[in-house]
Amino acid sequence: MTATHTREATRRHTVVDSPYGPLTLVATDGVLAGLYMTDQRHRPPEETFGDPDPCAFTETIRQLDAYFAGELREFDLPLRLDGTPFQRSVWAQLQLIPYGETRSYGELAELLGKPGASRAVGLANGKNPVGIIVPCHRVIGASGSLTGYGGGLDRKQRLLAFENGTQDSIPALF
Question: Buried b / exposed e across 56-78, counting CB within 10 Å, b at 16+?
């Protein structure tokens, strides 16, 4: 009988400042697998983030800086999005929502060919492991209300206002 050896994934992390508070970036085998805000719902335990290593995130940080400076509207980074097939299909749809636009949970469910699954879309949206870059903040309720956001509704409101060019009307919280 031959023994099989499975290599454990290498995880690294760093924390960067942003206009929305500190962001924890997590990479698995050198690919971005997490972007977490402080007090984020569904944030994994810190001990799962791996060793600190800011060098692993040079391009991610460059693109985030350009985004926050208003110079980048679409991220171009390899991502490792670990989740169920349904979650990954929702996260793929999120990446198709243009900068400055929103979609409702119901609209996303329709696009996925599952018109009755808006609640499931909302649950998958809330478990998005790479906030901002996979723009779950661009999903709103059917009535246009800002329902749910793992990073807090205040951050969601500020991110949407930033993308719409109206951030001056939203007071800074961080």
Answer: bbeebeebbeebeeeeeeebeee
Task: Report the relative pairing of strands 31-37 and 51-52 from DSSP bridges.
Answer: unpaired
Q: Please tell me whether residue 158 adopts helix, strand or coil conformation.
A: helix
Distance CA 100, CA 147 (A): 17
DSSP letter assigned to residue 54: G
Identify which of 79, 76, 74, 165 has the alpha carbon closest to the alpha carbon of residue 128: 79
Q: How far apart are CA 22 and CA 29, in angstroms?
A: 23
Residues in the chain, total: 174
Q: How far apart are CA 33 and CA 29, in angstroms?
A: 9
pLDDT by residue (tens digit) across 33-72? Answer: 999 988 888 889 999 999 999 888 999 999 999 999 999 9
**Which amino acid, one-letter code, is at 135?**
P
Instruction: Enter the pTM of the model.
Output: 0.87
CB 150 within 8 A of CB 131: yes
Provide the token pair at 158: 């500020």
**Is 55 among the catalytic positions?**
no
CA distance 108 to 169: 29
Annotated catalytic residue: which of 26, 136, 140, 160? 136
